[in-house]
DNA sequence: TTATATACATAAGAATTTTAGGTATTATTT
DNA sequence: AAATAATACCTAAAATTCTTATGTATATAA
């Protein structure tokens, strides 16, 4: 796990959104899914991921179940009720931010453009 | 000046891009332009802006001229040669990151979608 | 005359991430 | 058989970037 740049601030949203789509996932699985979805361009570092998961759990947005698979411990995360509400909120926050970014960075384009 | 959050790291790109479009700008002007372009939704704080400008100047991407306007000091920033190259690089980096973000967060959509 | 706008700046603290380590099992390669 | 990579968790120091709070100073508006 290493190098990307950027991502700062969007990691929580990524975690929550992936869990909205997948019911439950474990940490390592999240890193692999992101790598796969972005053709290896975004690599979630473990030093960023695990503290983020622990924080979301401490905030009551995620719950955990530990399972034994092939003598290896897996810690599965799922959205709580509060977590489910938070996904929507965090997603529209991020979407709004990206739209504003585009307004700043591509001043020629009008609303409703293509990337 | 207050609250935004999200995508820490895009401030440098914003500064460089605005200077690519405007030849020269001073700090306060940048905060106002961003506020105006985003209908007040993104407010660049001075505590973030000035250190960022100083850092870009220290890296040789920006140059400065100080001017007196109505008894008030203004510090105008312009892109250096290196700065001009860096805009392109930073812009495609950010654009690529946003595309990857969309791949993670909107798995239904195919490349070339609308925001 | 008091507050707001313009215009710069810094410094403490918070939040997030990178880098670098650590443990342990299983699978693959040499 | 031994070494490496992959799977799977974790933490801690340092770096980076941002917020919040302050400070200075002039001009304008209430």
Describe this structure in words.
The structure is a homodimer of 115-residue chains. Chain A has 115 residues and is an alpha+beta fold. The first copy, chain A, is 53% helix and 16% strand. Chain A has four helices and three strands. A three-stranded antiparallel beta sheet of chain A has the order 1-3-2. Chain A is globular, with a radius of gyration of 16 Å. The model of chain A has no long low-confidence stretch (mean pLDDT 89). At the A-B interface, helix 1 and helix 4 of A face helix 1 and helix 4 of B. Chain B binds a DNA duplex (30 and 30 nucleotides) through helix 2, helix 3 and strand 3.
Question: Main attributes?
Answer:
4 helices; Arc Repressor Mutant, subunit A; homodimer; three-stranded antiparallel β-sheet; DNA-binding; 115 residues
Topology:
2 copies of one chain form a homodimer.
Chain A: H1 11-22, E1 25-26, H2 27-37, H3 46-58, E2 62-69, E3 72-79, H4 81-105
Antiparallel strand pairs in A: 1-3, 2-3
Chain B binds a DNA duplex (30 and 30 nucleotides) through helix 2, helix 3 and strand 3.
Pfam families (chains A, B): PadR
GO molecular function (chains A, B): DNA binding
Keywords (chains A, B): DNA-binding
| Main interface: chain pair and counts | A-B, 35 and 36 residues
Structure classification of chain A: alpha+beta
* Weakly predicted, low-confidence segments of chain A: none
> Looking at the chains present, what oligomeric state does this protein adopt?
homodimer
Q: From the alpha-carbon coordinates, what is the Rg of chain A to the nearest angstrom?
A: 16 Å
* Strand adjacency order, main sheet of chain A: 1-3-2
**What is the H/E string of chain A?**
HEHHEEH
Number-wise, the strands of chain A total 3
- Going by CATH, the architecture of chain A would be Orthogonal Bundle
């Amino acid at each position: 796990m290493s190098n990307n740049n950027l991502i700062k601030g969007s990691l929580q949203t990524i975690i929550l959104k992936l869990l909205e789509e997948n019911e439950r996932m474990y940490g390592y699985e999240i890193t692999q899914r992101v790598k796969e979805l972005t053709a290896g361009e975004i690599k979630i570092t473990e030093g960023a991921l695990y503290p983020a998961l622990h924080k979301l759990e401490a905030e009551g947005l995620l719950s955990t179940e530990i399972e034994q698979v092939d003598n290896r411990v897996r810690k599965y995360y799922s959205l709580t009720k509060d977590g489910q509400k938070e996904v929507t909120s965090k997603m529209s926050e991020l979407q709004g931010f990206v739209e504003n970014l585009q307004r700043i960075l591509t001043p020629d384009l009008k609303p409703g453009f293509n990337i």
